Design the sequence.
């Protein structure tokens, strides 16, 4: 074989090897492309690691949850009416009391001394009135006696005038003497009238003097009554039937007028003062039904007031307990409670257990289960939340099942495969 022929065979063999290599590379690329285009790209997730919930349909009760405490509707704040010292504490907070129960006693020596002084002043005013009344009676007797004497003298003088008038005509008595006696009789009549006028004025003056004395007695009586009441208030009474809710005093402690001594609240009726989130407060109105959860069980109630002011992100709602006293046995003021307020009831509403991290009035993407044990990502629009459930407005229908727990998946994941 010539050298030229050998070279030709060698070139052909080399070309065949290159062609075969290119053909193998192309086939490998085709296989890789098919795998990329047709392989299963779903993320595998263990079924037991997720929570699956089913979309239900029916009545949806919009509930507002809150917490707070039971408070007495009727309360009485006991305060000191004067400066005093705590002398004796008979009862402590939590004790059941009646209106006349003495809770504690105070001591004020100055007030006790003032009571004695005002009593003496009152007695003195009454004694003065009696003395004035006796003086007036004596004065009236003297004046009445004077009037009586003058009336007697006048009558005698008039008789003498009548007698002398006849004798004067006969000449037995001089006319001048008769005229003098007649003048004297008229003067006596005028004196009687004057004394009677003085007597009437004296009576009016005496009545005014007694009225003034009555005013002084009334003033002394009022001062005595006020002081007596202040002394009586040193024995601090509950004032209403109920329970002592607060009492934070110590023996020997000094208190000034207006200082709080104790707070007493009635055992019934009670009201639950509940704080609800301000975002849900607009759903609550008066007369809505509510359920109060206590350590003694469930209690029904009715909303009576919604506070218009927001404090620390919450609004206070007052719920009056509507059950009878027998049903409220064991329930006490200041007890911590939870409350559920039934704001609205809607029919034929799709709802589901609230997925993790989902808020009301939001749109989120969830994984809806399919028949092949897989889940596809869908966009779901939610409405109002009520307790542990939330309205489904769109994206799901009744009977659909979705994964409601949070999963750690890549952002681009749109499918998952549930593995057992």
Sequence:
């Amino acid at each position: 074989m010539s050298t030229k022929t050998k070279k030709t065979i060698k070139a052909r063999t080399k070309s065949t090897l290159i062609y075969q290599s290119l053909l193998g590379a192309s086939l490998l690329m085709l296989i890789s492309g098919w795998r990329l285009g047709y392989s299963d790209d779903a993320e595998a997730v263990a079924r037991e690691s997720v929570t699956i919930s089913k979309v239900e349909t029916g009545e949806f009760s919009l509930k507002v949850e809150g917490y707070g405490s039971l408070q007495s509707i009727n309360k009485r704040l006991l305060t000191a009416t004067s400066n005093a010292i705590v002398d004796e504490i008979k009862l402590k907070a939590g004790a059941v009391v009646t209106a006349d129960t003495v809770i504690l006693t105070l001591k004020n020596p100055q007030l006790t001394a003032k009571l004695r002084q005002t009593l003496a002043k009152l007695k003195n005013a009454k004694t003065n009135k009696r003395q004035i009344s006796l003086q007036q009676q004596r004065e009236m007797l003297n004046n009445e006696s004077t009037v009586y004497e003058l009336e007697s003298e006048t009558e005698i003088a008039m008789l003498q005038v009548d007698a002398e008038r006849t004798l004067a005509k006969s000449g037995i008595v001089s006319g001048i003497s008769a005229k003098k006696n007649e003048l004297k009789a008229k003067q006596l009549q005028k004196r009687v009238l004057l004394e009677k006028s003085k007597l009437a004025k004296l009576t009016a003056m005496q009545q005014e003097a007694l009225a003034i004395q009555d005013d002084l007695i009334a003033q002394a009586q009022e001062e005595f009554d006020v002081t007596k009441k202040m002394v009586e208030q040193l024995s601090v009474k509950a004032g209403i039937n109920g329970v002592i809710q607060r009492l934070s005093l110590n023996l020997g402690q000094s208190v000034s007028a207006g200082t709080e001594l104790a707070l007493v609240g009635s055992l019934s009726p009670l009201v639950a003062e509940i704080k609800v989130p301000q975002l849900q407060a607009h759903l609550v109105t008066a007369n809505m039904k509510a359920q109060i959860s206590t350590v003694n069980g469930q209690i029904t109630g009715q909303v009576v007031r919604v506070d218009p002011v927001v404090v620390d992100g919450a609004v206070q709602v007052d719920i009056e307990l509507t059950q009878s006293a027998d049903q409220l046995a064991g329930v006490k003021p200041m007890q911590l409670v939870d409350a559920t307020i039934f704001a609205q009831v809607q029919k034929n509403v799709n709802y589901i257990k609230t997925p993790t991290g989902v808020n009301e009035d939001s749109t989120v993407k969830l994984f809806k289960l399919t028949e092949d044990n897989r889940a596809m990502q869908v966009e779901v629009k939610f409405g109002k939340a009520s307790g542990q459930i939330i309205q489904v407005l769109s994206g799901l229908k009744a009977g659909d099942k979705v994964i409601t727990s949070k999963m750690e998946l890549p952002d681009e994941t749109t499918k998952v495969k549930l593995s057992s």
The first strand starts at residue 43 and ends at 46. The CA atoms of residues 154 and 188 lie 5 Å apart. The two ends are 71 Å apart (CA to CA). Confidence is low (pLDDT under 50) at residues 29-39.
